[in-house]
Design a protein that fits this description.
By secondary structure, this protein is α/β, with parallel strands linked by helices. The chain is 39% helix and 18% strand. The protein contains eleven helices and 14 strands. The chain folds into two domains: 55-159 and 284-310, 3-Layer(aba) Sandwich (Rossmann fold), CATH 3.40.50.2300; 160-281 and 314-371, Rossmann fold (3-Layer(aba) Sandwich), CATH 3.40.50.2300. The strands form three sheets. A six-stranded parallel β-sheet has the order 2-1-3-4-5-11, with helices on both faces. A six-stranded mixed β-sheet has the order 7-6-8-9-10-12, sandwiched between helices. A two-stranded antiparallel sheet has the order 13-14.
Length: 389
């Protein structure tokens, strides 16, 4: 028989053995390191996507880039595009491309050099560009001031007649002789429309004005422009306007102590003493649209874009301090109206040189009418030469 004290001792001993065994089992579990997991092989880094080739763009200019007017405005916009689009595009240009068969050779050469977007910046390039576009379906063509389109060719223009009208407002208030002079380039609707609009603007502030026109049948010829300007001054004109590309008309006015306007670009620097204002074209908005569409794949052939003051494509700038405040106020109202659509230049009643109405009272000219203007309005003197579309 085991005594109670011995039984207690045996119980304690048994419990101690069990506890020790349990502790050893626990220790062995803690010390067993988990089996190492093999690391998954790292996937090779993806190769960087190849950088897309820049879009090659070419411009054909009818005059020199330094003409101070039409071509200068286009080339300034080309440079702005290089800054805006950076390495997405590469641009080039050919200047002094004649409006003749030689233009076709230039366009074909541009295609051969890998250009995928080509701008032809004068009316006379229309037929040569159509021909080359038909043979180069993978190239996009843009033609300034034209009216024929194709599957991969579209046209664009600026409403230069709005700038002409605004210049006319100033001219009508500044003339002392009531005789205005215009040096015209080529008698196509674009130019005739500008002469008429200039006259309408002048008549809006001075119904007595008359406009004389001398045609030089070229866009850029400083000698012919100078001769034409001088003949207008000799004929009594004391304010000159032009639809030619150089600064010769303004400079001739300066030498004769008469007034004149800059055209297409700001020409103030050429004869500040004679400069009343410059009716300018800003091609940046349209070129931004066209190049952006070519890059993102939304460019479509066909169709015509015609932008003016509303879209920021036309303005009149650098107005001479000698222009009276009331004329400036009138001009600002016209500009604001053109911008918001509340003012329309070609709104009847408007009569032609022969006294017959071309637009009845409150009748508005649509773009089809505007594109086909081949008549002088009342107040323009002389016979309109044959030409146009």
């Amino acid at each position: 028989m085991i005594q109670p004290s011995k039984r207690a001792l045996l119980k304690f001993t048994s419990l101690s053995v069990v506890a020790a065994a349990t502790a050893l089992v626990g220790c062995s579990k803690k010390e067993e390191a988990p089996a190492p997991v093999a690391a998954a092989p790292s996937a090779p880094a993806p190769a960087p996507a190849p950088k897309p080739e820049p879009l090659k763009i070419a411009f054909a200019y009818v005059g020199p880039v330094g003409d101070g007017g039409w071509t200068f405005a286009h080339d300034n916009a080309r440079k702005a595009m290089e800054k805006a689009f950076g390495d997405k595009i590469v641009t080039s240009y050919v200047e002094k491309v004649p409006e003749a068969a030689d233009a076709e050779r230039v366009f074909r050469d541009m295609v051969g050099q890998g250009n995928k977007l080509i701008f032809g910046t004068t009316f006379g390039y229309m037929e040569p560009m159509l021909k080359v576009a038909a043979d180069s379906k993978d190239v996009k063509f843009e033609h300034a001031t034209g009216y024929k389109q194709g599957d991969n060719m579209r046209t664009y223009d600026s409403r230069t007649y709005e700038g002409a009208y605004m210049a006319g407002v100033i001219a009508g208030g500044m003339t002392k002789s009531n005789t205005l002079g215009v040096v015209g380039s080529i008698p196509i609707p674009e130019v005739i429309r500008n002469i008429d609009s200039f006259t309408l603007g002048a008549q809006s502030v001075n119904p007595k004005v008359k406009t004389k026109v001398v045609w030089v049948n070229t866009w850029y010829d400083t000698a012919k422009e100078t001769e034409a300007a001088q003949s207008l001054i000799n004929g009594g004109a004391d304010v000159l306007f032009q639809n030619t590309d150089s600064s010769a008309v303004l400079q001739t006015a300066g030498k004769n102590k008469k007034w004149a306007f800059g055209w297409d670009s700001d020409m103030t620097a050429y004869a500040p003493e004679a400069h009343l204002a410059s009716a300018v074209i800003n091609w940046v908005p349209y070129y931004t649209k066209a190049i952006g569409e070519a890059l993102d794949g939304s460019w479509k052939g066909g169709g015509h874009t015609w932008w003016g003051v509303k879209e920021g494509a036309i303005d009149i700038v650098s107005i001479n301090d000698k222009v009276p405040a009331e004329l400036k106020d009138k001009l600002e109202k016209v500009k604001a109206g053109l911008k918001d659509g509340s003012f329309v230049i070609w709104k009847g009643p408007i009569v032609g040189q022969d006294g017959k109405p071309v637009l009845k009272k409150d009748e508005l000219a649509d773009d089809k009418f505007m594109s086909g203007i081949n008549f002088y309005v009342k107040g323009v003197e002389g016979k309109l030469p044959s030409g146009g579309k």
